[in-house]
Specification:
The chain is an alpha/beta fold and 247 residues long. The protein has helices spanning 20-30, 41-47, 49-57, 72-85, 98-115, 133-138, 145-158, 171-177, 206-212, 221-224, 229-246, and strands at residues 11-14, 36-39, 62-68, 89-93, 121-125, 163-165, 184-187, 216-219. Bound molecules: cytidine-5'-monophosphate.
Length: 247
């Protein structure tokens, strides 16, 4: 692929399961088929940081998607602990503002430097894919989703974050807004070609998202609910490979 990374390196599997036992099972089945495993508020609240430590100790890479949003000192402290857990990526809400974002970026860099560990990449959540213009208006944001995504992606970049989360339809906008090489775009809300579409909304496949400029795509249910999870993951990687080799 053009950035030198293989398609498998771009797949993040969402561990959207309830228990540590299920998470272990998914990790064991998919550790060779995906680059990283995303742990969100559901699994983290049920299984705790131990499941993160366990996957990292077993050689897996973890994307801790807890979307921190609090006063700068608290988010900086949470970022320090994420670095100590050994996660590769974690999220904060870019809407927390420049001071919150700058402080967490600084605390993660300090912690990794002092403790000699890998520095986790910090990603800013722009606008949740479940939100629309009306949702933004409810919370006092007067502009539309596109403008807000662009503003928050630029803020994340200017505040020292490593990248952002953007829905498939905002990848191109983010790339136009933030042109710094290396700024990561991580994209959830994709539907593999092989998976049944569960609604009529316009969706992008993982390969379309990668072509649009995503560094990583996050896939959960299309893999977790498949009868053969490893096969479902391999098919997604093959689809991404096929498209990139056509370029
Ligand atoms: O839809 P799927 O099960 O693949 O979702 C995987 C992850 O992507 C979820 O954990 C969720 O955080 C995120 N997601 C999202 N927007 C969507 C669907 C999922 O942000 N429309």
């Amino acid at each position: 692929m053009s950035d030198g990374r293989g398609a498998k390196d771009k797949l993040i599997v969402a561990l959207d399961v309830e228990t540590a036992a299920e998470a272990r099972e998914v990790f064991a089945a998919l550790r060779d088929s995906a680059e990283m495993f995303k742990i969100g508020p559901h699994l983290f609240t049920s299984a705790g940081p131990e499941i993160v430590r366990e996957i990292v100790a077993a050689g897996g890479r973890v994307f801790l998607d807890l979307k921190f949003h609090d006063i700068p000192a608290v988010v900086a402290a949470a970022g320090r602990e994420a670095a100590r857990l050994g996660v590769s990526l974690f999220t904060v809400h870019a809407a927390g503002g420049a001071e919150m974002l700058g402080r967490v970026a600084e605390s993660v860099a300090d912690t990794a430097g002092r403790e000699g560990s890998e520095r986790p990449r910090v990603l800013g959540v722009t606008v949740l894919t479940s939100a629309d213009d009306a949702t933004l208006a409810e919370t006092g944001v007067g502009c539309g989703v596109g403008e807000q995504v662009a503003r928050l992606a630029a803020l994340a970049d200017a505040s020292g974050l490593d990248g952002c989360i953007a829905s498939p339809h905002e990848i191109a906008l983010v790339r136009r807004t933030v042109t710094r090489p290396g700024f990561l775009v991580v994209t959830p809300g994709v539907r593999p070609r092989t998976a049944a579409h569960d609604d009529q909304r316009r969706v992008m496949t993982p390969e379309q998202a990668v072509l649009a400029g995503a560094d990583y795509v996050v896939v959960g249910r299309a893999i977790l609910k498949a009868p053969d999870r490893a096969r479902a993951a391999r098919e997604i990687v093959e689809e991404m490979e096929a498209v990139s080799s056509e370029q």
